[in-house]
Amino acid sequence: MAVFDPDHDSPNQSFGDDLATSGGMTDVTGESSVSSSIARWTTNFWPDLRSDLVEDQPNKDSDAMRECVDVLYVEDNRVDADLIRVVLSRTDTGIGPQFHFHWVQSLTDAFDLMEKQSVDVILLDLNLPEATGLDSLTAMRKVVHDKPIVVLTGHNDAELGAQAIRNGAQDYLWKNEASGPHLSRALHFAVERAKRQHIQTELNGAGFIQQSILAGQLPRVRGLEVAARCEPAEMVAGDFYDVIALPNDSMVIVLGDVSGKGLGPALLMAETRGMIRSVLQWETDPGPVLTRVNGLISEDCVRGSFVTVFLAVLEPNTGSVSFGTAGHEGFVLDNQGRPKQHLANPDPPLGIQSDHAYHTGRVNSVRESDLIFSCTDGVTEAYNPEIEDSFGNSRVFETVGHFAGQSAELILDGLFSTVRRFRDFGQDDMTAILARTVR
Predict the structure, then answer these.
(1) What distance in Å separates the CA atoms of residue 335 and residue 393, rounded to the nearest whole number?
(2) Residue 370 contacts residue 333 (beta carbons within 8 Å)
(3) CATH number at residue 390
(4) Residues 150, 253: one domain?
(5) Based on the structure, what is the number of domains in the chain?
(6) Residues 260-277: pLDDT tens digits?
(7) Residue 363 neighbours by CB under 8 Å, 6+ apart
(8) 350 shares a domain with 411
(9) Where in the sequence is the domain holding 130, given as residue range(s)?
(10) What φ, ψ does residue 109 adopt, rounded to 5°?
(11) Are 188 and 69 in contact (CB under 8 A)?
């Protein structure tokens, strides 16, 4: 096997032409017959490696317990490819991800390899047989949309680097300055940023779908005016509400709060809302509805997760309200926002006790202009650090009373704007539902 000698050969000579090809994929921990040559070559051109690279020893540190990151290096020069493999191997401290190195010499080879196996990050040279400069990046991005790309090139051009980032690269590294730790961090961070971006995309999509569902037009029932509002603290909410018109000129209002934050609670929220709607197709008594939904939800709730729910059936023709509560309360307020009835049963949240039988409560004295109201703890527990106090039910009732002469929608507008001014920042999802009897 020919050996590149920095004392006699030009550094621009293609070392790969003189080497026997050993295949396109190698693990960073694998042996290399050219390692000693590379060590001598880097004495002149990458001084920070020097004698560290004379022997390419595999890392023995509990590799099975560490995250493995598959790196695909697209580079037509064998010297550079073998050098990068050694660099990554020598910067493996046993902490953080373990890099598995795969090398191909062209974009075509890269696409063929990725059809057969998955990679986590692409290390891309900009001078390739099929394309040069940013055309290489553009060609890769046309085919690969979900993998982070780190450009590693011999072009020390800040403007080119900025353009590469604008065109979708995670990072831009100049070969002569890409030390082992620098390269390792760039690859690791590119993978982590891509994961975060993927999660954010998923959350954005889920949030859009969730808000589209909640923002739909509410049904109308003669004798009732209804408004509902949900403001997520993040992209997706664990809070939810629903309004369902029943065939007998009555209406169901639902408000719920799933424990936790993020995509998991948002999925459980959607599932709970869908189950309540399904059960209401054949059962409208609030207690049995919650009993049935609880049995179903308990099968899907992971340990420690639960759903609080307030569910009420409003009958404007009779002035009665039947309700079920799963760890969540509601109120009947007069036209000044003062509480007349506390709507709460001694029942636990959904998902805690699968065989629990939920109760139905009933109020028969709802008058014209009375308000049936419920909100989540994002409203009542909104915190003001200056006065070291939460918003609380008393401020909720006072605020509702202040706006009670306006429409149900404007009452909630006033309540939410008041809470936002009270708290110091967005702390939790805020959700409320309000129904008013009218003639």
Answers:
(1) 16
(2) yes
(3) 3.60.40.10
(4) no
(5) 2
(6) 777 677 778 888 999 999
(7) 320, 321, 322, 323, 332, 341, 343
(8) yes
(9) 15-203
(10) -65, -35
(11) yes
Q: Which residues are within 8 A (CB) of 317 and not within 5 positions of it... i.e. 6 or more apart? A: 223, 249, 250
d(CA 256, CA 267): 13
Residue 155 belongs to a domain: yes
Regarding whether 300 and 156 lie in a shared domain, the answer is no
CB atoms within 10 A of CB 387: 8
Q: Which residues of the chain have pLDDT under 50?
A: 1-61
Say what the pTM is.
Answer: 0.63
Residue 426 has a pLDDT of: 62
Of 172, 165, 170, 110, give the one whose Cα is nearest residue 139: 110
Are 265 and 121 in the same domain? Answer: no
Structure tokens at 195: 């994961």
pLDDT at 99: 83
Amino acid, single-letter form, for residue 11: P
Helix (H, G, I), strand (E, B) or coil at 30: coil
Q: Residue 224: in which H helix or E strand, if any?
A: strand 224-231
Does a structural domain hold residue 208? no
Instruction: Determine the Cα–Cα distance for residues 126 and 166; give it in Å rounded to an integer.
Output: 15
Q: Does any domain span residue 315?
A: yes
Q: Do 312 and 197 share a domain, yes or no?
A: no
Same domain, 198 and 64: yes
* 3-state SS, residue 46: coil
Q: 108 to each of 139, 140, 143, 230, how far by Cα in Å?
A: 10, 10, 11, 50
221 plus 364 within the same structural domain: yes
Cα–Cα distance for residue pair 412/161, rounded to 1 Å:
50
Q: In this structure, are 91 and 115 located in the same domain?
A: yes
Structure tokens at 81: 């490819």
- Residue 237 pLDDT: 63
DSSP string covering 228-267: EEEE-SSSS-SEEEEEEE-TTS-EEEEEEEESS-SHHHHH
